[in-house]
Amino acid sequence: MKKRDARVGILFAMPWILGFLIFLAYPLIASLLYSFTNFSILRPPKFIGVQNFNELFHDQVFYTTLKNTLLYVAGAVPLSTVVAIGLAMLLNTKVKGMAVYRTLFFLPTLVPMVALGTLFLWVFNGDYGLLNEAFHKVHVSPPNWLGDPTWAKWTLILISIWGCGQAMVIYLAGLQDVPVSLYEAAELDGAKAWAKTKHVTLPMISPVIVFNVVMGIIGSLQVFAVPYVMFPGGAPARSTYFYTSYLYDNAFQYQRMGYASAMGWVLFLITLALTMVALKLTDKHVHYEAN
Amino acid sequence: MTLKETLGLSTAAIVLVSTAIYGDKVVSRQARTDRVTVIYWEKWTGDEAKEMRKVVDAFNRSQNRIFVQYLSISGVDTKTMLATAGGNPPDVAGIWLENLYEFSDANALTDLTKMAKANNIGRDYYIKNYWDPLNYQGGLWALPSTPASIALHVRPDLLPSDVNTPATFPKTIEGLDALVDRVSKKKPNGDLEMAGFLPSNPGWWNWSWGVYFGGSLFDGQNLTLDSKENVRAFDWVASYAKRFGSKEVQSFQSGFGTFASPQDPFMEGKVATELNGVWKANYIRVYKKDLPWFAVPFPYPKDRPDLEGHSNLSQDVLTIPRGAKHPKEAFEFIAYVQTLEVMEGLCSGHGKNSPLAVVTEHFFKNHQNKYIRLFDQLARSPKAFSPPAIGILPQVRDELNVAFQEVSTEQKKPKDALHDAQVRMMALWDTYRSQVLNK
Known about the structure:
The structure holds 2 protein chains of 2 kinds.
Chain A: H1 3-34, E1 37-38, E2 46-47, H2 51-57, H3 60-90, H4 98-106, H5 113-123, H6 130-137, H7 149-160, H8 165-176, H9 180-188, H10 193-204, H11 206-221, H12 225-230, H13 243-253, H14 257-282
Helix pairs in contact in A: 1-14, 3-7, 3-8, 3-11, 3-13, 11-14, 13-14
Chain B: H1 3-22, E1 36-42, H2 46-62, E2 66-72, H3 76-85, E3 92-96, H4 97-105, H5 113-118, H6 128-131, E4 135-136, E5 139-140, E6 143-154, H7 173-183, E7 185-186, E8 192-194, H8 209-212, H9 228-244, H10 246-253, H11 265-268, E9 273-277, H12 280-287, E10 294-296, E11 311-319, H13 327-338, H14 340-350, H15 361-366, H16 372-380, E12 384-385, H17 393-408, H18 414-435
Parallel strand pairs in B: 1-2, 1-3, 11-12
Antiparallel strand pairs in B: 3-11, 4-5, 6-9, 6-10, 6-11, 7-8
């Protein structure tokens, strides 16, 4: 490559490079430095060593929010995965007007998070919510989804299904890549629908499943907007107080930017560890075409 | 590099550098270039914002040197803090009293002591209970915009005739509890239909219950969240969870509309009494004009008659953030708001009582709240109280909210919930003292 071409290439990439350096690399390095300081935004950061981390590991609310977040991940990721794969399979069938169905199922993903939170406040209202009205119609006593600490987290897990359209589209693309010849071969061997799904479809889209699960874990660990709108302060009794909400409160409500930075780095390490575990656990079950 | 590329790059660089240097000098279309522009951020929206807009407009008309540019913004506390850190704060910020101490500790505010003195604004001009909380660590950090006092609002039409006037309404908490048992109603399936009183409605001052029982949250050195008075208060809160059933109360309350709507539980008759601020009358006038109601001081424990006339006070305050470009002019505007006529007009427009020591008869006679004299008396009461002057007040308030919810949902016993809150907050207070206050 000529020198001139390289210069032009860098020039074209410059908006991204500048964006990366200013909006990602700098905050990343700065937050790491701040995590070792007492920093309230308005006063200069003061180095305090590992005091923030030490305090964090003795902070009961840290463990409460971490537990809530991990429970949310454990509930939302499998549920969304199953629903997204199911929908993708349905949308992969040859039915008239499929383009319309695909659009309809993807549309909810485009609803802004705050609007979503407000909408579900009405749907799940314990007294006059749509869902409980339906329960009353069939004479079933429904729970108080938003007010009962036992149910509030599950409400959020149920709501997470709303955003599975994104993953559904990726699964759909994966499904359309599965060679028809494999299904034909399976049929010749006498395979029925479930056997074809189990032995052809799922193995063939396994790389896509792993990708979506990993992205789902990362996204769920950062769950913020919907619970913040629906359950101010993590009410009732911190049952819906998630890690990122506590991080935000420390940074912007309590002016503890150093402590919040430490929380951010701990979350980064947890995310990294969970991602590695997920990749390791699925390693033997993923079938890459190249293999 | 070609000439075109060089020119393109140079233009981009010039735009970038100019924006960085001159960005904060950009003048809004609202601003007046012939006057000093004072930027004023305020949290209010709706009718309250309109009332303050009238004050700002009147000030702008009253002289020709200063132009106050009024911006109604949400999250004013966080935005002011970040703007101050960025070196470009507003000249005046309307925040809550609850933020004052953490802002002051963070060195985010301008001390108004000298400017107030120069303008003959001092302690005697205000009701003591409103003036004192504005003074912290030897400085004066804010002046009031509108204050409030809190009282028990009562629906006489939902009460038996022997207790449905201010004179005959129970004076003690025990009397209130007995009345609640008399008037509360349940449906045949056990669901609540009407509650005489609910400590969790509207649930805005959960930190204050202990003080209504003679307790405090801070003794000047340490937090006292689990004092015996506070535990007694939370035992009383727990008694309501037992009385009605915690799940029944949660379900009942989930059907409540917001306070600024006709579906407000007090206006709808879902609760017969409600602890609320002087502003409540404003909302009743808008949403249910003919609603019968009266206000009384919140009852006191039978064995603590000395607490009679207690009330929780709150204030919206005007501050000058550190680094404001025009502090002198900003204070001139704040001082204008403090004048008797302007302050009474603003408080009247907001449906609140006045923070000033002298109140005109005109204010009382024309106020839309028929119980305004009671709210004024409560503000002057020696038993009236404000949130404790402590930099970690937001955390303490949040922690007590959690303790309150744990007790209301019967997850923890009052003593345990308050003990846990005390341990957690004391650890935080120790850190705050050493890291922020350097003590």
